[in-house]
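Hi there,

I know you've been waiting on this one. I reran it after we fixed the sequence typo, so this is the corrected version. Both the input and the resulting structure follow.
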Amino acid sequence: MHITSLQPGEVFVFGSNASGAHGGGAARFALDRFGAVWGQSEGLQGQSYGIDTMSGLTVFEEQARRFVAFAAEHPELRFLVTEVGCGIAGYRPQQVAGFFADAGENVVLPESFRAVTDAP
């Protein structure tokens, strides 16, 4: 799924860095198109949600779990998750997809993540 636009109630979930410098990749797209805030690394920003993927796997996992909890608290929203961490941060889906395994029905994971989380 290539996300180019959002419907009302949809949120673009992207990988960020600790300083919230959304200079490239999906972060730049979120800044340009979906209300991401320069200087804010984590959380809801306009019609986007940032997760710091650049400060190591421990931070990434903590923030991904906070995101999953946030999404559960907001069933009225539909979260479209990009391949967070698999671009500039350099991780593979096999390393990070499990961080989102407990996500609810309102979280749409990329196919590469679903292939890992849905595996028997």
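Quick highlight: Strands lie at 10-16, 43-45, 48-52, 78-81, 107-108.

Best,
R. S.
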